[in-house]
């Protein structure tokens, strides 16, 4: 069994590559439906990632519908690859979304929201373990962003696959998840 970040990253990118569009849609809907069980619905500001379709990420459109149906403030980000940091904007009916050079859909402009205002963050990932550690694409954007949030901000991973038993090479700067939601179940850490 692969347990290093590098090996797991390769393994799960390959696993994800095998998913069909139908499977992605089906699994993404199941993930959104499982979110309803979480004790987060009294919160106000929800940060959502917009999926990189080419990487076959969880389609968060269903999560967006859920949040707007519950009248939540939705926050999306723009990435700065030079500073490896993210700026957050309120998603409104007027928000224009454009893909950046890495195919990440991002807001063109809008009302900025400080990290300290965000109550809940839905975190993209490739793989996670039963201890709440996650592996992303290795650029560190989310670890940096999550470390800027308040300690009580709820961090929720969204994954198509179940947890692995352990990721060996975890750094101190890696921010753990509070929950991870898959099409099958909800993990609480």
From TrEMBL:
<dbReference type="GO" id="GO:0009396">
    <property type="term" value="P:folic acid-containing compound biosynthetic process"/>
</dbReference>
<dbReference type="GO" id="GO:0046872">
    <property type="term" value="F:metal ion binding"/>
</dbReference>
<feature type="binding site">
    <location>
        <begin position="5"/>
        <end position="9"/>
    </location>
    <ligand>
        <name>ATP</name>
    </ligand>
</feature>
<keyword id="KW-0479">Metal-binding</keyword>
<comment type="similarity">
    <text>Belongs to the 5-formyltetrahydrofolate cyclo-ligase family.</text>
</comment>
<dbReference type="InterPro" id="IPR037171">
    <property type="entry name" value="NagB/RpiA_transferase-like"/>
</dbReference>
<dbReference type="Pfam" id="PF01812">
    <property type="entry name" value="5-FTHF_cyc-lig"/>
</dbReference>
<keyword id="KW-0547">Nucleotide-binding</keyword>
<feature type="binding site">
    <location>
        <position position="57"/>
    </location>
    <ligand>
        <name>substrate</name>
    </ligand>
</feature>
<protein>
    <recommendedName>
        <fullName>5-formyltetrahydrofolate cyclo-ligase</fullName>
        <ecNumber>6.3.3.2</ecNumber>
    </recommendedName>
</protein>
<keyword id="KW-0436">Ligase</keyword>
<dbReference type="GO" id="GO:0005524">
    <property type="term" value="F:ATP binding"/>
</dbReference>
<keyword id="KW-0460">Magnesium</keyword>
<keyword id="KW-0067">ATP-binding</keyword>
<dbReference type="InterPro" id="IPR024185">
    <property type="entry name" value="FTHF_cligase-like_sf"/>
</dbReference>
<dbReference type="GO" id="GO:0035999">
    <property type="term" value="P:tetrahydrofolate interconversion"/>
</dbReference>
<feature type="binding site">
    <location>
        <begin position="134"/>
        <end position="142"/>
    </location>
    <ligand>
        <name>ATP</name>
    </ligand>
</feature>
<dbReference type="GO" id="GO:0030272">
    <property type="term" value="F:5-formyltetrahydrofolate cyclo-ligase activity"/>
</dbReference>
<feature type="binding site">
    <location>
        <position position="52"/>
    </location>
    <ligand>
        <name>substrate</name>
    </ligand>
</feature>
<dbReference type="InterPro" id="IPR002698">
    <property type="entry name" value="FTHF_cligase"/>
</dbReference>
